[in-house]
Structure formats: structure tokens, C-alpha cells
Design goal:
Helices cover 67% and strands 0% of the residues. By secondary structure, the protein is mainly alpha-helical. It has one domain. Helix 1 packs parallel to helix 4.
């Protein structure tokens, strides 16, 4: 890799990755704060703990989702040769969306069993998942357009496949938002299905000089 020109904003990605790791760690830790110890009542402690299942569900789903984005962030930044001012800003916007996720998680926890508000809670939560998917896609599009950030040796077919995958995620999360308006269970079901799908390992990067 060539050295950046004096005064250029183009630098290696070490600092942006380290900062992002810190935001991921804080966001994923904040999720547990939504689960409160039950107050004493006439019910047994075991029953009260079991009744917290919406909080467990929201916590696990959001924890796994943030963890997946952390792993994906590590994955794609290995494909980036440098960073610049605009990529830094796009990454900050993506991290803003990640740091926001504990809030819709708490809303889902509080209102998922409230028949009057469960549709709004599920829709808001699906929207909370749509935000990082959309900001992630924007960052990827900027990095790959004209190969301004990504490694020039990456295979064009591989880049197209990843673009379709990330763009498809945005469409599916938008679908989850719309489904939640119809039936909150459908919307949450799609969110869960996407989370399980994204647990699969990403494809191996392909380079034009690969002989395999």
C-alpha cells in the first residue's frame, strides 16, 4: 500500500476499527440493563423470573444482532485498504444506529405483551434493526464505488454478491417493519429468521489472482 500524501485524510483503518469496537462493546453491554430484578410480591421468585421472558427474548435477539455486526465489521474492514473523511462519517452514522438499538430493545421488552401497544413496539423494534442495515449498506456502497476504499484485487463478482446481500438485508428489514404493522408476530418472526441466517459465516473473499 502506498503512503498517504501529506495533508491527506486517507489513513489505515486501525483507529476507526478500535473506536468502533468500543462502541460495539458499550452498546452490547447496555442491553442487559433493560432486565430488572423482580420486586418482591406474593408470586414466587421463579414465576416472576419466568415472566420476564419478553426481556430475555429482546436481550438475546439484540445481543446476537450487534454481535453479528461486530463480526461483519471486522470482516469487511479487512477488505478496506484505507479510510478517509467521508468513510469515517458513514461509519459514525452506522455506530449511531448501533448505539440506538438498546432503546427499541427496551421498548419491545416493556410493550411486547401489551395488546394495545405491541404492534407499535414490534414495528419500532424492526425499524431499529433497519437503521444499522441501511447505514451499513451506505458505507459498503461508498467503499466499493469505483473501488475507492476496497482492495483493487477483489473479484468483481464477489463485490456484486456482497452488494446484493447487503441491499437485500435492507429490503428484508423494511419488509419486517411493514409486516409488523399487519401482525407484530410476523414482523418479529422475520427479524428472528434474519438473525439466524446471518449467523452463517460470510463468504470467503475472492481475488482476481486467486488460483483456488
Amino acid at each position: 500500500m502506498s503512503e498517504p500524501k501529506p495533508g491527506s485524510t486517507e489513513r489505515e483503518t486501525d483507529r476507526i476499527e478500535a473506536f468502533s469496537d468500543g462502541v460495539f462493546a458499550i452498546a452490547i453491554t447496555l442491553l442487559i440493563l433493560d432486565i430488572k430484578v423482580p420486586r418482591q410480591s406474593s408470586s414466587s421468585l421463579l414465576v416472576m423470573l419466568l415472566n420476564l421472558w419478553p426481556a430475555y427474548f429482546a436481550y438475546i435477539l439484540s445481543f446476537v444482532m450487534i454481535g453479528i455486526y461486530w463480526a461483519q465489521h471486522h470482516y469487511i474492514f479487512k477488505l478496506f485498504q484505507k479510510t478517509n473523511h467521508l468513510l469515517n462519517l458513514l461509519n459514525l452514522f452506522f455506530l449511531l444506529c448501533i448505539a440506538f438499538l438498546p432503546f427499541p430493545t427496551q421498548v419491545l421488552n416493556e410493550y411486547m405483551l401489551d395488546s394495545a401497544n405491541q404492534t407499535a413496539a414490534a414495528t419500532f423494534y424492526a425499524f431499529g434493526l433497519l437503521l444499522p442495515a441501511g447505514s451499513w449498506f451506505l458505507m459498503w456502497l461508498y467503499a466499493t464505488h469505483g473501488r475507492r476504499i476496497v482492495d483493487n484485487r477483489l473479484d468483481p463478482g464477489y463485490l456484486r454478491r456482497m452488494t446484493v446481500q447487503y441491499g437485500g438485508s435492507v429490503a428484508l428489514y423494511l419488509g419486517a417493519v411493514l409486516l409488523s404493522l399487519i401482525d407484530f408476530r410476523w414482523g418479529l418472526g422475520l427479524c428472528v429468521g434474519l438473525t439466524l441466517l446471518y449467523l452463517l459465516p460470510p463468504p470467503r473473499p475472492r481475488y482476481v489472482d486467486d488460483q483456488s
